[in-house]
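My current task is to audit a protein record that another person submitted. I have pasted the whole thing underneath without changing anything:
***
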Amino acid sequence: MRLGIGSYTFTWAVGVSGYPPATPLDPVGLLEKAASLGVSVAQFCENLPLDRLTPEELDAFRGHARELGIGIEVGTRGIRPEHLLSYLRLAKFLGSPIVRVVIDTADEKPAADDVPALLKEVMPEFERSGVTLAIENHDRFAAGTLAKIVEQIGSPNAGVCLDTVNSFGALERPEVVVDALAHLVVNLHIKDFAVERAPHQMGFTVEGRPAGQGRLDIPSLLRKLAAAGKDPNAILELWTPPEQTVEATIAKEESWARQSVEYLRTIEGVEGVEGSPLPIQGSAGEGSSSVFNFQPLPPNS
């Protein structure tokens, strides 16, 4: 299991609406953080979208990833076929084995019964390209519903990006989610958490913790995935509670990332942390303007 970081490891550094950092983390900066932490994968999701780079910037970005020995994974939101196919082209160019996707956008929340047909439109292209569509469990569909969606798609190139916390929004504990989805997992988001009673005793809060310092049983999680025959890349994500200033919050996020990686390195089954680099497909000169005919979502989608 290869360990990686992503744009949701450093959410505050990338930038949260209303809390702009003085110097936002850019895609090259995330690659360099991955190298600094000694991990071998970097995942770029919709908060740091690679489809907004120019062809020249993407070419340089790919070359830099190769120099650092960092494998790239791409991710987005929204399941319009034309949008997913643009991300498939991006994945092929950058050598990403997956396109991780969250079904919903701010404006589009398709019914569960409509999702399989939409995704079946693009699966032949994913299959021909050898790229897997990794659908993330989020807070609207229960895990059983997501499993049914993937099974109805009926493609070996469709699976689940398992997030360990998101399904709290669907009132499901991590154990329930893992039991329902383990057999479909193609990518993993490790996100530790704490559940604490509010100071006034009326209600609870769920917030993030560094990996290994919360309530998520990560060794058990990895054992369950191994028992299901799954060995996905494991991407560290953080829900870092804010401090009084953006600068202090970003410093906390950085500290949590380092603590988390140090802990995850101790777990049996986590491999490739400082091993050989992942292959990155294509050459630095490959591609033409037609390759970059992306159709990005509007901002804040």
In short: The chain has one domain: 3-292. The chain has ten helices and ten strands. The two ends are 32 Å apart (CA to CA).
